[in-house]
């Protein structure tokens, strides 16, 4: 590269057409106003060069990537293996400082890690692989001026989880029921529109940047419900997938494809998709070979099989290990993985039959298969036993398959948490799940399970909306997902701080401290607020069937879906005990098998998930169940009203388009919260006949 690189202004960053999210131009000011030296080569190093040169062009800094080297640099980004760094301070770090850093001894940085330190007035990022340099650069951006303070702590940074993935439930063709994006609340798909690829690389590239800047390194580009058009992505439409992969590759993101288990039949014309049939195995091997010819770094397949009507191995009398291993065999020679979802349950249940329990299903199907999956199978498990509710226990599958690589799936798209019309910052919820220890205090956390296996996955909340996520504040969920996947022990409040600093402080015209305080006040506890005004004490659902927005207490009570609350005049909740219920508590190892079994020891917030109790049952909080329901529902609405007032104070501090968008959604959130409150309170008042102790209005 010529010296010095003057950089170029982005011709296609498109910042006017869509929000810059956590990468506003101004976030690059500190980095871009300095002499920067980049040492090393590779595709992702080119990305670093591109980012730095653009920043320098804008803010007056200079970038060197070849001799003659600058005498001084404020920032050095270097690959350790690229040879001596032409900067004395950085070279000293390269030659010996790593064992001292972070007390780690071995100094290993891995494929994505980096060392960030400050030496003799120079900020130094060292990595062993280009991806590490890219992540290190984004870390410098995140720190802003603090990256250039002499008290910058020396630290080695490595992701705790190797696989940090976003699954898009995007359809290529507009689906008559699920639309362009199944459970999408942010407009259309970034990839597809009306049956074809969008071919809009500029916007995709900005998306890839956002993902890389928060640590995501894998995406699946289509819905797990693979319909006819989407099935063709594996074959006839593979070129579209390759095109997307081209855009994501420079940001260290590998592309995956959701495939239908019936592909050999629907695409290959075979009479069967039986996983043990030779022709089927050959078909998958050949199809997969063609994928890798087009996309050499292809990540692998994602499969939803024998679930909600999707085809799967059961049709041939085979189990899920047979099914997953079939695809694993095809992918193994190319280094790919199959991500096989554990979301398998009977969706034609009879509500009269109390012995069937949807919560049990994943464990019943998968735990017995532990040890039978090929090495390159990742079993992808929803974090809870039911379905992404705002409160569920952690899935017992995550404690039951030590010989299987497991991935933990969360839902950034807010299907059950307000559909991006409600503010619901999910960082604290995911953090709670990741810190949970299914074997008790001395055992591993869920983050450890994910770290040892298939990592963390979120269903994406992004679409072609100008704010990416519909609700501008829902961007925080995407950001927090990436950061928690990188380091599950991060404090969700601190992540929010990062996101506010990066996204909003550079663009506010008001008092930054006031903005930060207000955003925290609105968002910190917003998940618990949402929980307060919706289904109580972990019982879940109570949403309107189909679209899942707004309250309908009995909407699913007499349906086939297995999501019941069993409220009657005496009490409410699902008896999942071994003693008298479905036995689900027995799927947990101790101590939780005992804690959940016991009505007295079960945590309040999960009581109705595990037990059917009388309305006057007294919680650990000292309140009765019925009074808890009333109190939390009144409180939840008040909290939303307070959020709305707080947001009003920010008028003038943010661009009107952002302010109005959030304000409009807070109006709807308040309307909806009132509706929830009134329906839930009225329902339980009518069932129980117990009045509110405080005499508030119940209809
Ligand atoms: O909760 C359900 C959703 C479906 C989704 C399914 C799944 C993609 O309502 O829309 O299908 O979960 O996770 O497969």
From TrEMBL:
The keyword Hydrolase applies. It comes from the Bacteria. Residues 156-468 form the Glycosyl hydrolase family 67 catalytic domain. Signal peptide: none annotated. Keywords: Carbohydrate metabolism, Glycosidase, Hydrolase, Polysaccharide degradation, Xylan degradation. InterPro entries: A-glucoronidase_C_sf, GH, Glyco_hydro_67_aGlcAse, Glyco_hydro_67_C, Glyco_hydro_67_cat, Hex-like_dom2. Transmembrane segments: none annotated. The keyword Cell division does not apply. Residues 469-696 form the Glycosyl hydrolase family 67 C-terminal domain. Belongs to the glycosyl hydrolase 67 family. This is Alpha-glucuronidase. It comes from Micromonospora chalcea.
């Amino acid at each position: 590269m010529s010296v010095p690189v003057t950089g170029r202004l982005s011709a296609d960053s498109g910042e006017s057409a869509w929000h810059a999210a956590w990468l506003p131009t101004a976030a690059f000011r500190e980095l871009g106003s300095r002499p920067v030296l980049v040492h090393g080569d590779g595709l992702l190093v080119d990305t670093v060069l591109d980012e730095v040169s653009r920043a320098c062009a804008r803010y007056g800094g200079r970038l060197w990537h070849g001799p003659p080297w600058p005498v001084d640099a404020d920032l050095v980004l270097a690959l350790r293996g690229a040879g001596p760094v032409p900067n004395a301070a950085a070279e000293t770090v390269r030659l010996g400082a790593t064992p001292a850093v972070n007390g780690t001894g071995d100094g290993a940085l891995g494929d994505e890690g980096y060392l960030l330190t400050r030496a003799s007035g120079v900020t130094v990022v060292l990595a062993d692989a280009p991806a590490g340099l890219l992540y290190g650069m984004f870390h410098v951006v995140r720190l802003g001026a603090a990256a250039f303070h002499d008290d910058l702590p020396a630290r080695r940074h490595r992701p705790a989880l190797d696989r940090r993935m976003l699954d898009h439930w995007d359809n290529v063709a507009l689906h008559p029921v699920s639309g362009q994006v199944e459970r999408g609340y942010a407009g259309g798909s970034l990839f597809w529109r009306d049956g074809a690829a969008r071919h809009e690389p500029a916007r995709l590239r900005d998306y890839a940047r956002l993902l890389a800047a928060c640590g995501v390194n894998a995406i699946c580009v289509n819905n797990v419900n693979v319909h006819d058009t989407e099935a063709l992505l594996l074959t006839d439409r593979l070129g579209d997938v390759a095109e997307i992969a081209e855009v994501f590759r420079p940001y260290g993101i590998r592309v995956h494809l959701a495939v239908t288990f019936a592909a050999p039949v629907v695409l290959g014309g075979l009479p069967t998709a039986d996983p043990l049939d030779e022709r089927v195995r050959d078909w998958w091997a050949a199809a997969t070979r063609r994928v890798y010819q087009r996309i050499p770094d292809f990540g692998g397949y994602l499969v939803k099989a024998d679930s909600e009507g999707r085809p799967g191995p059961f049709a041939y009398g085979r189990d899920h290990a047979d099914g997953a291993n079939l695809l694993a065999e095809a992918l193994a020679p190319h280094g790919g993985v199959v991500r096989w979802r554990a979301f398998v349950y009977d969706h034609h249940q009879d509500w009269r039959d109390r012995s069937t329990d949807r919560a049990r299903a994943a464990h019943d199907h998968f735990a017995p298969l532990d040890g039978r999956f090929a090495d390159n199978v990742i079993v992808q498990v929803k974090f809870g036993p039911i379905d992404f509710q705002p409160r569920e226990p952690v899935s017992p599958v995550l404690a039951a398959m030590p010989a299987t690589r497991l991935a933990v799936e969360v839902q950034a798209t807010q299907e059950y948490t307000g559909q991006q019309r409600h503010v619901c910052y999910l960082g604290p919820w995911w953090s709670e799940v990741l810190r949970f220890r299914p074997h008790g205090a001395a055992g591993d956390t869920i983050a450890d399970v994910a770290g040892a296996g298939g990592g963390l996955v979120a269903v994406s909340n992004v679409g072609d909306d100008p704010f990416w996520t519909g609700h501008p504040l829902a961007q925080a969920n995407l950001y927090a997902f990436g950061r928690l996947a990188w380091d599950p022990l991060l404090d969700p409040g601190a992540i929010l701080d990062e996101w506010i600093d990066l996204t909003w402080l550079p663009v506010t015209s008001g008092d930054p401290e006031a903005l930060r305080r207000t955003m925290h006040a609105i968002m910190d506890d917003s998940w618990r607020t949402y929980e307060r005004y919706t289904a109580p004490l972990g019982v879940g659902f109570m949403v309107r069937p189909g679209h899942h927005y707004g309250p309908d207490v009995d909407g699913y009570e007499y349906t086939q879906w297995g999501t019941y609350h069993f409220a009657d005049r005496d009490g409410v909740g699902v008896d999942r005990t071994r003693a008298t219920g479905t036995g689900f508590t027995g799927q947990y190892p101790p101590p939780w098998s005992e804690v959940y079994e016991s009505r007295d020891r079960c945590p309040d917030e999960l009581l109705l998930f595990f037990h059917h109790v009388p309305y006057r049952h007294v919680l650990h909080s000292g309140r009765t169940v019925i009074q808890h329901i009333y109190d939390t529902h009144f409180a939840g609405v008040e909290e939303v009203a307070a959020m709305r007032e707080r947001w009003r104070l920010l008028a003038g501090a943010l661009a009107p388009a952002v302010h109005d968008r959030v304000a409009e959604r807070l109006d709807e959130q308040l309307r909806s919260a009132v509706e929830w409150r009134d329906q839930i309170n009225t329902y339980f008042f009518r069932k129980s006949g117990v009045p509110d102790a405080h005499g508030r209005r119940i209809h």
